[in-house]
Design a protein that fits this description.
Elements lengths: L1 H17 L2 E4 L10 E5 L6 H8 L4 E6 L6 H9 L3 E3 L6 H12 L3 E4 L17 H9 L3 E8 L10 E5 L13 H17 L2
Parallel strand pairs: 1-7, 2-5, 2-6, 3-4, 3-5
Antiparallel strand pairs: 6-7
Helix pairs in contact: 1-2, 4-5, 5-6
């Protein structure tokens, strides 16, 4: 995670200068314990922007395609990211996520699985609901806002952090239950705009 801290500290002043980065609700982030950050996904910069705003390191679930090149795979892993296969129920990624949460760390997920420009363009995967239910941890909804939903140099970017959401554990939860939780979370994320 040393690379993570270096990258965040390097990018922090650049982001405030070149992206006019602002924030709302930063006080809503839990100061201790594990939780899941769920955020809309506008650009390749999103993980860095969240890392700047969240006071503790975030472990990210990232699409496996980013790990194909050996050098990039090495850098992503050193920064705390781990691969997920978006085309199937990736048991390894789920186990890794649960282990991260069990260790008291923060897990970052973009529930729509890809970059989308508006709520109508994406649909939340059930993984968020599954992880929140199995790990029994809160979800922190976050919304990244930028003009025309595009992150560009010298264009203001605002990170809005909502209040943590909790869901009662369901011993016999189904895939439909997980999908419903994921949908509720993403509705909250988009309501922060």
């Amino acid at each position: 995670m040393t690379l993570y801290k270096f990258a965040i500290n390097f990018m922090r002043p650049l982001s405030f200068l070149f992206l006019r980065l602002t924030h709302k609700g930063r006080e809503n982030q839990p100061q201790s314990g594990s939780y899941i950050i769920c955020c809309n996904h506008l650009s390749l910069m999103d993980a860095v922007l969240l890392g700047i705003m969240i006071k503790r390191p975030i472990r990210y679930m990232a699409k496996k395609e980013l790990f194909r090149h050996k050098v990039l795979a090495f850098l992503f892993k050193k920064a705390g990211a781990f691969p997920v296969d978006r085309d199937k129920a990736d048991i390894t990624a789920i186990k890794t996520s649960l282990k991260i949460l069990k260790n008291g760390d923060i897990l970052g997920i973009f529930p729509e699985g890809t970059r989308v420009k508006s709520q109508a363009d994406g649909e939340a995967n059930m993984g968020v609901g599954l992880l929140a239910t199995k790990a029994n941890v809160p979800i922190l909804p976050v919304h990244i806002i930028s003009k025309n939903n595009k992150v560009r140099l010298f264009r203001k970017v605002t990170i809005v952090i909502g209040e943590p959401m909790t869901f009662d554990p369901k011993p016999h939860a189904t895939n439909e239950d997980f999908k419903e939780i994921s949908s509720i979370v993403m509705k909250k994320v988009y309501s922060l705009k």
